[in-house]
Amino acid sequence: MFRKDPQIKALSNLKSSERRRMLGSIIKEYNLPQGLAKESEEKILPPIIKQTTFKSPKGYSGTIYTDEHQTPVWFKTKDSELIPTVYTLWNAPFILPIVHTHPHVVEVLEGGADLMLPGTAPPFPESIKKGSIVAIADTKDPLVVKAVGRSNLNLGQITKVVGTTGVAVDVYHSNEDMLFKIAKLKIKAPKEPSLEVKFKEETNDDADQGEADNIEEVAEPQNVATDIEPAQESVEEPKESNEVNELANVVDTLSVEDIDHFFKRSLLQTLTQDNVKPPMPTSIFMNHIIGNLASDFNQIQIKKTSWKKSAKFLKAMEKEGLLKVKGKGDDLTVVSVATKETNDELKNFVPYKVKKSKPQGAQPASKLKDNNTLIAHKFYKPNAPLRPIFNDLDFMFANMYSANEVKEILNKYIAKHSLVNERNKKTILLDDNLSSIIPGDKVQGRDKLLTPFLNKFTEYYQLENPNLPKEDQIHREPVRGQVPQVKIITETKIGRKVVTRTFNFEAFGINAEELAGELKVKCSGSSTIGQNVQNPKLTEVTVQGPHTMDLF
């Protein structure tokens, strides 16, 4: 159904009431238990749902439902019930009965084929009847769904498949088809999906038990304190620990003015001590300020200040001349900051020592930078005119070779047939095989042979991030063609409006929405996402203004 790219219209939000009705119909259609906990319900149907209509080249038409990140979660045709996608079944494999097949058969299914009965691996769930919607997984990962379709037989009654014929499942949707690729985020299949289903009663019991545990924990310290009280004179706690406890007690009594002072002083510390380089999103800028607070206690929060919100705090500081912000509402960007040379308050500010804790799992900046490094590997696969040379040297004709290996093959052929010109060792005498490949004279310089020789190969490339495992790489296998290039074009629209368009970035695993957010901040202007005019299959991000030099 989705082997080829379907025509999809713009997404629109589904009302919460419609979502509830949709969830109810799913539970009824697939005989799921009532009284599911919210966690289990959201595995079946995310809290935010968007919808759009589609029409496939084969004539199918219907509706696709996605989550807020445009990951397809359900779909239906005009004549079918709601059908879950593999993304939904990775989170909730309990929705459908699973038909198992062999790992090598999955590759055929992903190419658009239906599942034949001889390719299945019984036993089958007894609930599968002709017309049932079923999931398909391989025997290696029995809970990781690879495809979804409709059963063409009463599989629940079949025990043997050897020597049989016929289609077992008509496949509607599979891993890596065009519906799967609608998702903007790269989501990996879980290694061990969970079949656990939580109910509201279980959740309430757990909560009651948790409350009981909390009551016991509150009561215990009183008894412990009484037991150890006589021995307190002989135990001297560290001075630093006492100071921390005192500060924790004092925080509860801090006034709004005191907490305001904490935040403004932290802003001054940030502007004088941190290497802040605008433009910068307010979320990142506020992280600097929070990191520079004299106390790391959670009670000192922006919501306990007189401003209540980060946006109001920054706008108040803008009025005091400490920074400048741009944007509307809470969506602000810090576009510039004051310095000691331009602001007397910063000039007279005395910095203080701040003990900044390193976030758990934090990596050095150099390592984070390395994680963004991509290495492009080029490979060359020989074409038919080169077969006589490869057969002569006993090289594998079906393999791919690097440029250095191709050069070595050419040199070995020249050496084997003594083609070096004795009168001028820098030139080569071309035999019949080389003459049919390399145009021009029978005698040519050695340095001029490699380029026309390479032209008889088909070029492939593979992008690799050396810091990621193989399963997380953009390309697991070489891709035919030349290494792609990101296109950045500045052009003038009607009315002398200048815009900068960026496209062809998706080949490098770059998400369009993330790129649009980055360019919005870097270029201090609005950004939009749309289709490329020259190639509608490509997504492009457009930023107002001439920013070609900023992006290189």
UniProtKB/TrEMBL annotation:
Gene3D superfamilies: 3.10.400.20, SUI1-like domain, SWIB/MDM2 domain. InterPro entries: EIF2D (IPR039757), eIF2D_SUI1 (IPR039759), Pre-PUA (IPR041366), PUA-like_sf (IPR015947), PUA_eIF2d-like (IPR048248), SUI1 (IPR001950), SUI1_dom_sf (IPR036877), SWIB_eIF2D (IPR058886). GO terms for molecular function: RNA binding; translation initiation factor activity. Residues 486-551 form the SUI1 domain. GO terms for biological process: formation of translation preinitiation complex; rRNA processing. Residues 378-456 form the DM2 domain. PANTHER family: EUKARYOTIC TRANSLATION INITIATION FACTOR 2D. Belongs to the eIF2D family. This is SUI1 domain-containing protein. It comes from Wickerhamomyces anomalus (strain ATCC 58044 / CBS 1984 / NCYC 433 / NRRL Y-366-8). The lineage of its organism: Eukaryota, Fungi, Dikarya, Ascomycota, Saccharomycotina.
